[in-house]
């Protein structure tokens, strides 16, 4: 029982907990080294078989769903195939029900009225109590053969010193009896085994007296003729199982003298069950093809299943949770009629990443501190030059109704290659391509792919993450349209309470941040960013005047972390991922 | 997004009413601000909010004794002793609203928004005595920092709070629009301690010698640059001029150094609480931004001048002899059709109502002409308004985003998936069904990961290299998925064997045929990690993938594997995969050196192919 008990802390506190609860539990797994878990299992494995008549072995399987712990194949293949694979855990409970102790128990039960106490039975059979308990449990596993009620009783027992006292008398009585009529020199008395304790007790009982002026040193004499050793009498009562005849005070006094101790005993009160029978025949584990063909299954008794154990998990591969969420987002966009944009270039030029979006060349986002620039290939060489001219003019001098930023726009700055900081760069390329198609036809685009920021890293920020972006281009789109489409999009994610806050993005105007009320946090949290692309971005591309482009973006990681209850992004993305989390993650159903 | 910290009580006093935190949060939200944090500051927290290292304080003429004394002066000694109960609001301000970067601007913006005051009109005036302050720019500045603008705030009254706000606004402007002083640097001086005309010139560093702010003695510019190398605040600005042959410097007519922009001011002209007349100079490499910065400072703080909202002009004379009066304080008029505003927002307000909405946004507007035209006056504080769309946004904010009727666009389109992503999605599911678990590893990694650890030289890869990685983890974009998978195994060594992992994702290779000189390739990588190499498992997976891709076994149009060599593989245990007549990747048992370098202990076989030929 010991090792099983010590393994118990690894159980989830509630097996049928919420999704988050379960995920959290799985995070706990790394705290136990694999080796520890194996060693514990191995112990139980052996205990189960070498001491099979002791029962309790089945208990381990009841507590820890073995499928969780995934025993490696080849290293322990022998064990695995024997124990962990072919014998399903739900059968283990019935292993020893046909053992000799169980038979004896049933016979005794048949011949008695009412029931039996497991402790009494063990002393009657001359067995250790644990063995009887094992038999009780194995019979319990058969179903309704017996009923067993767990009782815990407080019992008083003599300590070894108490047993000695009950037999030979108390220390004080022993001192009294060892005194001859002429008395004994004190120093000699003290050398007796009961001397020290007995002397002071006998003195306070006034059984003995001391003459300090006796020749040859202090001398001890009997003070009375007879004594009654009550301590011994009381202990003998306890020994006879009549501890209840002592008062609370008396028992505590003896306990204080370390002669008595109180123990808690767990016993079973066993009575006949509704399917009681003394003939528990040898049971078959499972149905076999032979039984089916011969029909022998009709005459065979099968071991009962233990339905409270866990099954064996299927051996399949698993998809990564973030990718599962990505699949759902793609699905949502496709349901809404959005076409996927190509995003197959992590490397982008500053031109498409910033300049094309009317983001000025001095913008802080273009700082070394925020963006990864490339050393090799350092520069982009090929641009649609007439478009570049229009972009340059709009930045430096304005046009298309704009004042421009009034600065010296430099091609060299636009040529600088970088790791794209947003997929809006890909959207800019897609919109430029759209603008080259004449006549204009409306478009709805989306993309989900990686972007890179040279930022300070923390529990929720990595240097790379996935950006989700949606874009709609058509004549006469309004801010109300943007809000309407956002509402539909977020409804599909299961997010319904939306609020819009004015915001600033360099390439959208108007811009708005999307907030949703988070029930758990009891506050509004930002779930996305959106806006209408600036005319200074669209008109130089060649899109017709009157065409508006509305767009929104959000990260893929954030909703995933919320969905799967993950606090540290490194546990989700990158090589430090917890594979157990990947194995155990549930389906991604965003709208539930 | 810049964050402005304001003392709540000062803010409420200026707004003329109090709010609960929730009410103020709501007001901010509506106006496009975000009440980020509310802080009950204790003495130590004060430091957290005013983290100006001494260098900064000294650079801008601040006479600070100690924070404790400030608090004690304002609130009494007891509070300064322990903790003060000052509540600070940290408010996030949109990055283009420089006029909201200080308490004065925030209050003015909110009061106009709530129609409690009318937007003040800022005026540039000539000095009473006709003696205009002059700043003469010499041609030496062209090489280093060619532009300068200047203005005078006359008869200003500072209090401790106003003074703090004045300094903090400069700091916020420096951090944001000034791009850490690279584009523009601000110097403010006690005009009564100096005498014009002033000269903005550039000299060799050894020729510049003055007593810099809060220094006890004179230093040459070279000495100062050395001195500030260890200054936590100033060291970030040194690079702007460090390697220039000439350093910019401003002298008064007596040769007193006002400042050595963009690093430090002189001690002589430093501002104190008693300063009544402030000379402001902004030097920079971007004239437009210098003008905006000057406009923002003077519009915000002319509130405290004897003649409120007036600014005394200064004349700046350029090397070519042309002279300009600053600050510009230009008001510009724009005409926007009411229809356009309604159409872009998706509302139907009357022109008069739209004009009223815009006026609340600090854009004084009126209906003119045929009744559909709205004339909008853009004040010097609103440098962010550069297009009609900016005006439309302000109308939408004043109308209230959350009052706009949501509608679904009628845009009808047929959705298409990107073929490569469609194939990837299909393959992922079947690879998982084949017993392999998906991983998601980083696209950036170290050179070592993709070269040394795989037994290759980095020059043999076609890797793109990052110029400014903060750590080795971000030196290159991966050229292969294998290192990420092996690192995933290394981080999961406690997991039961075998480990069967895969990833389908992009790698990056240099490609001179692309405009940016590089492109992504979609790779599929799988590894099998166990006590035995399990080549047959990985080989079987390849067979399964080909089955899924409907590629038969065989030469020509089918697939075959042929013995090959690869530095990452154990000799004789590596094969190249040919499909549809081209090489698509390799599979094999990894070389023990590779296994060891990735801190693994068991044999491992791997497969990596390019998915794109199967489209």
TrEMBL record, chain A:
<keyword id="KW-0479">Metal-binding</keyword>
<dbReference type="GO" id="GO:0046872">
    <property type="term" value="F:metal ion binding"/>
</dbReference>
<keyword id="KW-0460">Magnesium</keyword>
<dbReference type="GO" id="GO:0005737">
    <property type="term" value="C:cytoplasm"/>
</dbReference>
<keyword id="KW-0007">Acetylation</keyword>
<dbReference type="InterPro" id="IPR040586">
    <property type="entry name" value="PheRS_DBD2"/>
</dbReference>
<dbReference type="GO" id="GO:0005524">
    <property type="term" value="F:ATP binding"/>
</dbReference>
<dbReference type="GO" id="GO:0004826">
    <property type="term" value="F:phenylalanine-tRNA ligase activity"/>
</dbReference>
<dbReference type="InterPro" id="IPR002319">
    <property type="entry name" value="Phenylalanyl-tRNA_Synthase"/>
</dbReference>
<keyword id="KW-0648">Protein biosynthesis</keyword>
<dbReference type="Pfam" id="PF18554">
    <property type="entry name" value="PheRS_DBD2"/>
</dbReference>
<dbReference type="GO" id="GO:0000049">
    <property type="term" value="F:tRNA binding"/>
</dbReference>
<dbReference type="Pfam" id="PF18553">
    <property type="entry name" value="PheRS_DBD3"/>
</dbReference>
<dbReference type="Pfam" id="PF01409">
    <property type="entry name" value="tRNA-synt_2d"/>
</dbReference>
<dbReference type="InterPro" id="IPR040724">
    <property type="entry name" value="PheRS_DBD1"/>
</dbReference>
<dbReference type="InterPro" id="IPR006195">
    <property type="entry name" value="aa-tRNA-synth_II"/>
</dbReference>
<dbReference type="InterPro" id="IPR040725">
    <property type="entry name" value="PheRS_DBD3"/>
</dbReference>
<dbReference type="InterPro" id="IPR045864">
    <property type="entry name" value="aa-tRNA-synth_II/BPL/LPL"/>
</dbReference>
<keyword id="KW-0030">Aminoacyl-tRNA synthetase</keyword>
<keyword id="KW-0597">Phosphoprotein</keyword>
<dbReference type="InterPro" id="IPR004529">
    <property type="entry name" value="Phe-tRNA-synth_IIc_asu"/>
</dbReference>
<keyword id="KW-0436">Ligase</keyword>
Automatic annotation (TrEMBL), chain B:
<keyword id="KW-0479">Metal-binding</keyword>
<dbReference type="Pfam" id="PF17759">
    <property type="entry name" value="tRNA_synthFbeta"/>
</dbReference>
<dbReference type="GO" id="GO:0005524">
    <property type="term" value="F:ATP binding"/>
</dbReference>
<keyword id="KW-0436">Ligase</keyword>
<feature type="domain" description="B5">
    <location>
        <begin position="329"/>
        <end position="406"/>
    </location>
</feature>
<dbReference type="Pfam" id="PF03483">
    <property type="entry name" value="B3_4"/>
</dbReference>
<dbReference type="GO" id="GO:0003723">
    <property type="term" value="F:RNA binding"/>
</dbReference>
<dbReference type="GO" id="GO:0051290">
    <property type="term" value="P:protein heterotetramerization"/>
</dbReference>
<dbReference type="InterPro" id="IPR045060">
    <property type="entry name" value="Phe-tRNA-ligase_IIc_bsu"/>
</dbReference>
<keyword id="KW-0030">Aminoacyl-tRNA synthetase</keyword>
<dbReference type="InterPro" id="IPR041616">
    <property type="entry name" value="PheRS_beta_core"/>
</dbReference>
<keyword id="KW-0963">Cytoplasm</keyword>
<dbReference type="InterPro" id="IPR020825">
    <property type="entry name" value="Phe-tRNA_synthase-like_B3/B4"/>
</dbReference>
<comment type="similarity">
    <text>Belongs to the phenylalanyl-tRNA synthetase beta subunit family. Type 2 subfamily.</text>
</comment>
<dbReference type="Pfam" id="PF03484">
    <property type="entry name" value="B5"/>
</dbReference>
<keyword id="KW-0648">Protein biosynthesis</keyword>
<protein>
    <recommendedName>
        <fullName>Phenylalanine--tRNA ligase beta subunit</fullName>
        <ecNumber>6.1.1.20</ecNumber>
    </recommendedName>
</protein>
<dbReference type="GO" id="GO:0000287">
    <property type="term" value="F:magnesium ion binding"/>
</dbReference>
<dbReference type="GO" id="GO:0004826">
    <property type="term" value="F:phenylalanine-tRNA ligase activity"/>
</dbReference>
<keyword id="KW-0547">Nucleotide-binding</keyword>
<dbReference type="InterPro" id="IPR004531">
    <property type="entry name" value="Phe-tRNA-synth_IIc_bsu_arc_euk"/>
</dbReference>
<keyword id="KW-0460">Magnesium</keyword>
